[in-house]
Structure formats: C-alpha cells, structure tokens
C-alpha cells in the first residue's frame, strides 16, 4: 500500500505517526490531497489503529479523539464522492472506539500510557529510526503534581544535545543521572549512545521501582549497562553492600533535567554535587532547566557560585517545531543548558 504513496505523502505520514505515538497534543494532520487518497487512509489505519499491527497502543480516549478529528478532516478533503471514498477500515476503527466502554476522565487521569519518542537526530538502525518507549502517567502529573511520572521538555532537549555530541560526552563513559523520573535520558545513553555504564537515580523509591518497567520496554531488563538506584539529595552517599559508593566505579558525567523547579530543593542538590565532586573530582555535570521562574534558576546559580562550582552556559537552541521530526516539544519555552565543573 505504502509503495503507491508519493515521497511527500510518506513524509507526512511518518511525521503524523511519530507525533501520534508520542501522544503529542498538537498534531500536524496531513494535507487534504493525501487524506482523500484511500491508500493513504489504509496506511494510516495500518500504522496507527490496527489491532494486530500496533503493540504499544495509546490510551483509548486519545485514539478516539485523534481518529474523530482525522475522519472529520478526511470528509472535508473529499472533492468528488463518486470517485473518492473513506476507508472502511478507518470507519470500523472509529465505530469500535465509540462502541467500547472507555474509562472515566478521573480514572484515565490516573492511568499510565505508552509513549514512544522518535530519536530523529540518530542514524537509522536496521532501517528504522531509533526510539524510546516509556510508560508514563502524563495526566496524573497535572492532577496531583507528581513530576517524575512523565518526561518533560528539558529532558528531551538534553537528549537532543547528547545525541549531537555522543562521541565526546557519552560513548564509553560512566553516566549518573539525578532525578531520572521516567529514565528517558538514562535509557538514551545506555541504549543508543554507547555509554559504558549508566545509573538512573531518583529520590522516590516508587519511581526507582518503576524504572524496571521502562528498562524492559526498551529491551534492557537484563542489561548490566544500566541500573536504577535511589539517591536522595543532601544525604550522604552510601555504598550499600559495597564499602565504596557505586562499587568503587568512577563517574565521568552527571546529567540532570528540570531539577530546580522547586527552589526548596536547591541547597540539597548543591550538596549532592559537592559529594560527587569529592568522589570524582574530574567529572562534569550537564544540567538543563526550563526557565519557568528566573528567580528560582538564579538561586540555583547562586548556590553553585557559593560552592565554587564553575557554571558555563551551553548555547543549544530548540529547533523550530515545524522542523522537528522527533522528539516533539515546544519551541516557545526557554530552556537553559549549562556545564558545571569544580576547578
């Protein structure tokens, strides 16, 4: 089916598919000239809504909302009902979704969903663009404020930066991520960027426990390259069953994204920086933050200066949303990347 589509049609189909599986809210619907092509419609159904072909399906409410909007656009695109038609497969999918019993909005807000991020900055692997699939509770965050249950823009931006500098920063290196949350950055380093070893840490034992699911979804459940560990900022680093923390292994690079949204945690974070620098004097920290409150970010910079850490801004602009091929995130939010070292 897809062979009968033009290169432009395939490009729009691919972009729409990537946004759909990322549960992107502002989808770029294909042009009318493609939507009214029944072969294009069948390709949409096969890629996005096939019960047999789609493994990590988005939540039913999201599927229904997207398919309803898609069908409306297809109807509007048709110019000659005698020559053009709507795919029966898409019609049947929509009918099935409307006939099925969907969870309430309250229940849906508490459920986790599969989210797949396409890594368009990396070269294809086995003729497919690399990706990371996570189980996230995106709506639960909005309802209850648990920020570790979804992947935020700062993590996606940091990931893009690492993809563009993998040979210098990540390949063959030992990585520690602070406030890992869903584990997106850690999984990126372990699965796609060639890190020697990755520790995904978080202060919540529940979030650390949930990391194993995301490791599994990315085929790393039995890997010795990545592990999850609880690490509470401000508390002394302990070695567990080993006399030395991290079994005496070195750490080359510490990563963090959006760790300073709550200013009350900054002193503890700076203290943990200090503990890590004491163990690994030559390590580097790359931190990225969405600047929601400039005053809070300035407090973070002040804490770094007070501890005599050197902070250098990294110039790395967000690609315009219309040019993004995955992962997709807003180009309207200011995100700051910085390199932190201790002389």
UniProtKB/TrEMBL annotation:
The name this protein goes by in its record = S-adenosyl-L-methionine-dependent methyltransferase
Q: Which InterPro entries match?
A: Methyltransf_16, SAM-dependent_MTases_sf
> What GO molecular functions are on record for this protein?
S-adenosylmethionine-dependent methyltransferase activity
Q: Which Pfam families match?
A: Methyltransf_16
**GO cellular component assignments:** cytoplasm
């Amino acid at each position: 089916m897809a062979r009968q589509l033009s290169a432009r049609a395939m490009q729009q189909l691919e972009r729409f598919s990537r946004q759909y599986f990322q549960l992107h809210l502002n989808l770029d619907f294909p042009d009318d000239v493609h939507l009214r092509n029944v072969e294009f419609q069948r390709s949409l159904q096969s890629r996005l809504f096939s019960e047999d072909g789609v493994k990590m399906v988005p939540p039913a409410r999201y599927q229904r909302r997207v398919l309803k909007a898609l069908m409306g656009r297809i109807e509007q695109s048709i110019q000659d009902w005698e020559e053009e038609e709507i795919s029966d497969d898409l019609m049947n999918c929509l009918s099935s979704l409307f006939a099925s019993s969907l969870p309430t909005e309250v229940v849906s807000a508490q459920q986790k969903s599969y989210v797949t991020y396409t890594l368009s900055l990396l070269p294809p692997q086995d003729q497919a663009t690399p990706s990371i699939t996570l189980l996230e509770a995106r709506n639960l965050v909005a309802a209850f404020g648990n920020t570790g249950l979804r992947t935020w823009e700062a993590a996606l931006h940091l990931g893009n930066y690492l993809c563009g500098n993998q040979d210098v920063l990540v390949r063959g290196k030992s990585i520690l991520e602070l406030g890992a949350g869903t584990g997106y950055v850690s999984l990126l380093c372990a699965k796609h960027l060639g890190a020697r070893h990755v520790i995904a840490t978080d202060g919540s034992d529940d979030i650390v426990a949930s990391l194993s699911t995301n490791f599994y979804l990315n085929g790393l459940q039995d890997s010795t390259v990545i592990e999850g560990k609880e690490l509470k900022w401000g508390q002394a680093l302990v070695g567990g069953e080993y006399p030395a923390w991290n079994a005496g292994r070195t750490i080359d690079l510490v990563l963090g994204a959006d760790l300073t949204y709550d200013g009350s945690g900054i002193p503890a974070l700076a203290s943990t920086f200090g503990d890590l620098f004491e163990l690994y004097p030559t390590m580097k920290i790359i931190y990225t933050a969405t600047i929601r409150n400039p005053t809070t970010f300035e407090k973070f910079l002040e804490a770094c200066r007070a501890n005599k850490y050197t902070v250098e801004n990294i110039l790395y602009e967000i690609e315009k949303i219309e040019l993004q091929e995955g992962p997709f995130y807003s180009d309207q939010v200011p995100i700051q990347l910085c390199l932190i070292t201790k002389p």
